[in-house]
Amino acid sequence: MNIRDLQYFTKLNELKSFSDTANYFGVSQPTISYSLKRLEKEYETELIVRKSYANSVTLTVFGEQLMKHAHRILREDNLMRKDIDRLKTKKLKVGFPPIISDYLVPQAFDKLKTSGMLDRIEPISAGSKELLDQLYDGDLDISLLGASYLPHENDFDYEVIKKQNFKIIASDKREFPRTLHLKDLINEDAILLDENSMHRQIVDNLVDKYNVFTNAVYQTADYRLLLDLVRANKGISLITETALVNAPGVKELNVIDTKFPPFYIMIIYRHTLQKGPLMNKLIEVFSKL
Fold first, then answer.
1. Do 156 and 269 reside in the same domain of the chain?
2. Counting Cβ atoms within 10 Å, is residue 44 exposed (0-12), middle (13-18) or buried (19+)?
3. Structural domain span for residue 251
4. Are 97 and 224 contained in the same domain?
5. Over 80: is that where the pLDDT of 56 sits?
6. How confident is the model at residue 195, as a pLDDT?
7. What is the pTM of this model?
8. How large is the C-alpha radius of gyration of the chain?
9. Domain match, 171 and 257 both
10. Is the keyword DNA-binding in the record (predicted)?
11. Number of folded domains in the chain?
């Protein structure tokens, strides 16, 4: 068995066509057929159902089993290549969610500078959900992350840096009762962070359970714009208190009939990654804030 045979096999199952698979890889159709025969010979079983009409590919039960393992093997091969390339560059691709990086990087900046790490970090800015996907795919080495839960997957190791809270906010120009129930906010316009933010899971739960935040008049990936719009009294919002540091003109609403999960700020990386001195130092700097 070799990696190329597994690549042909997974693509053949995806495209359901020997000719299309050959065209995808820029090889002849017999190359794909011989590759499949090699796999079948190695595992001593038929992997696809042979049918009389052309371009028909259906996996046997043995083929389905091999397919599950093939995806895992190809993913590990892809990660291995990326990790080795990273070790050659002697740099780190580090994920920085905007809210968290604005909060933590100023606190860590001097230590990062004096330790000579600033020019060895390639920053990638995106929402926490997107950064977690990039981390899983090996496109990032390590990331700051915000989440309402702690990862349970065996793929990741992490250290919690801070634990904060979610807040429902409004413009300080608005008058609200001292205490509120969620039903009091049903008719309010809402400004929300988009689906790449971990905040959306909390918002979606509120929509499903309490029918609040259903009137989302605007969605954005930019939390600063969100705060500006709330400040200008264009709607209420939900956001972590991390974003409210030095954010005049907005206020927390005292909603008494719901309890939000914590907002965990963590530094996270893949379990299989060889960390090395640079990554260990980066983890140390942020974990001691």
1. yes
2. exposed
3. 166-261
4. no
5. no
6. 84
7. 0.82
8. 25
9. yes
10. yes
11. 3
